[in-house]
Structure formats: structure tokens, C-alpha cells
Amino acid sequence: MGLGVEHQIHMDCRNWEEDFYRDAILQERETLSRTVFRTAYAPNPNPNPNSDHLVAASSDGSIAAYSISACLEMGCGSSRNQNWLAAEPEFVIRGHDGPAYDVKFYDDSLLLSCGDDGRIRGWKWKEILESEESEQGAKMKPVLDLVNPQHKGPWGARSPIPENNAIAVNSQSGSIYAAAGDSCAYCWDMEKSQVKMVFKGHLNYLHCIVSCESSSQIITGSEDGTARIWDCKSGKCIQVINPEKEGTGASFPCVSCIALDSSESWMVCGKGQSLSLWNLPARECVSVARTQASVQDALFDENHILAVGAEPLLTRINMNGDIISQIQCAPTSAFSVSLHPSGVAAVSGYGALVDMISQFGSHLCTFRCRGL
User: What are φ and ψ of residue 205, in 5° steps?
Assistant: First the structure.
């Protein structure tokens, strides 16, 4: 089995150390099984793109910031033996006990993350950039630390803290929305650090959530196979959207991802091996695209849709549901695609790999995120 560049094992048979060899093999397996669940391009008031950063949330609970210019200098490594180069983060934060599932920026000043421990945590982005001790990120305390409520059971028992699978923000209303594992979505008041609304109605845990700032609504996607539109003022569900059901024998009935375009008039919804495009004002599905593997993330790129999933491909789809192009990418299963204002897409997923692809389809760099 080929070992990555960052963990090649050089052994001298004359000085055999079984413990060292065993630990090295276990470390290598752990590295290859780590997953980057979400990446986000950091806001940058500096017009110089060389100062941009990419933030990654990983399965080991880490939140890491990488310099894009430093990663571009690394290039793409070798795909033949999967000898991807390991990038050194400028900053690493031990964000969560358990996997970190999502990262977002609130008002360009606060870096937010959520994870399997049911917490939403926030750090001041400016302090992260100005920190001179990148290796001490685990010691930086969050300025925001929210924990999902527990449900009461019989005889005073309490349920486990439900995980947060995704978050959305609305800085105009001072709100953070969380898609939780107890089938509920929570609206948190930023100033008071309190839950101000609970959205109940899904029959299974939530995968994804987006905020519609123009209409004071949120949209959630669930394992129950539906997406729901909620009124944030009343907390009531105003529409249940059931994307086109898969054919007989479908194995992935959940709504895995939801994205809005910049006008918030169009929504794309990933369910199983399909992407459905919805006109929100008309509440009408206008097209459906089929993929070979389950869709795990999608976003709008002007009049196109970029999608990734359980295959090593970045797929570009038009508004009619036609596949325009498919570009091979490094992660064998991709969980996140994010888009830089310049048009560069970051595809991340299994193996802690991040593949940066230009708007013309060329691979700018591929690197493996470092673990804690």
C-alpha cells in the first residue's frame, strides 16, 4: 500500500522497533480515513487574493485555516500513488469533541463551527489572523459557545445532546440557525446566546439548512426525505417540499443538501442521485438532473449548479438539468464544494483532501489537511 508523502515510513531492519512501526501504520490509516466535511473561503477586505484563507472542518474535530497562496505554491502532488502533499495550516483550533461538520462566517468577523457534540462555537477571525502562535490554536477560547437543549424524559431523565449537522446565519436579525439531530431546527439569538425559536415538524434528523434573508424564512432538509420552508416569525412550517422520489430500490431517500442562488428565487435540492431545481416564488420544480452517485453538496455558480457527492467528480449542471461537464477530483467521496469570488472551487472530502479547481477546470493544487 502506497503511503502519503507526509507519512512515509523509513525503517532500518537492523534497529527494528515494533511499537514505532505499529504506531506509524495506525497513524497512516487514521490520516487516510479522516474526512473534511466542510470548507469555507474566509472574508477578505484586502483586495490582494494572496492573503485569502480557506477554513476546513474535519472529522477529528479540528477547525483549520490554510493560506491559499501557500497551498497554490505546493501544486498538486502525485495522484498516481495518492502521494498528496500535506499542507501546514496557519492556525488550528480544536473546535469540537467529535467531528466538526460545518463552518460559516458571521458578519465577516466571527468564525462559527458546529459539530457532533451539539455545540456551536465562534472565534473572532481577526484574532485568529493576528495570532502568532498557530500551534496553540487549541488553547484559544471561543467567544461564543452554544449547546443544544436536552429533552426531558420520564423520571427526570434527559436525552443525549443532539448533534448539529449544519448551520446558517442571518446577521440582519442577529440569528444563527442549526440543523440538529433531534429532528428540530434551532434559532439562536446572537446577543443573548439563547434559543429564541424551535422549528418542529420533520420526522427524522436534519442534514442541511439555509436562511432566506429577504423573506425571513429558513429551509431545512431531512433524513425523512422532505425539505420544509419555515416562517421565522411564527416558527410554523409553511410548505413541505418532497423532491421527486427515486426509482424503485433507492438507497438514499434523504435530502442531503440545499442551496439558494443570490436572488433567493431559486433553490437546488439534493436527494439521492438527483438534483431538483425549484422556483421558490412559484413553489414549482422546473428541472431534475440525475447523477451516478448520491449528491452530498451543491451550490449556484451564476446560472449553473456545481455538485459533488459519493464519487470523485465535480459536476456542472445548467438550469435545465443538463450535465455540462464533469471534472475528476481527488476525494473519492466529496462532502463539500465552496466557491471563491474569482471562480475557484474547493472540493473536499474523504482522506482529508482538498482539491482547488479553476473555473476553466484545471487543478490548481491538491493537498491533504493536517490533523490534530
Answer: -65, 160
pLDDT digit string, tens, across residues 108-145: 899 999 999 999 999 999 988 887 655 545 568 899 99
pLDDT tens digits for range 272-286: 999 999 999 998 999
**Residue 116: other Cβ atoms inside 10 A:** 19
Q: Say if CB 204 and CB 184 are below 8 A apart.
A: no
Residues 6+ apart with CB under 8 A from 293: 273, 309, 310, 311, 313
| DSSP assignment string, 212-252 | ETTTTEEEEEETTS-EEEEETTT--EEEEE-PPPP-TT-S-
**Spatial separation of the C-alpha atoms in residues 273 and 121, rounded to whole Å:** 33
Among the listed residues 297, 294, 245, the one whose alpha carbon sits nearest the alpha carbon of residue 268: 297
What is the C-alpha R_g of the chain?
21
pTM to 2 decimals?
Answer: 0.87
User: Residue 149 is which amino acid?
Assistant: P
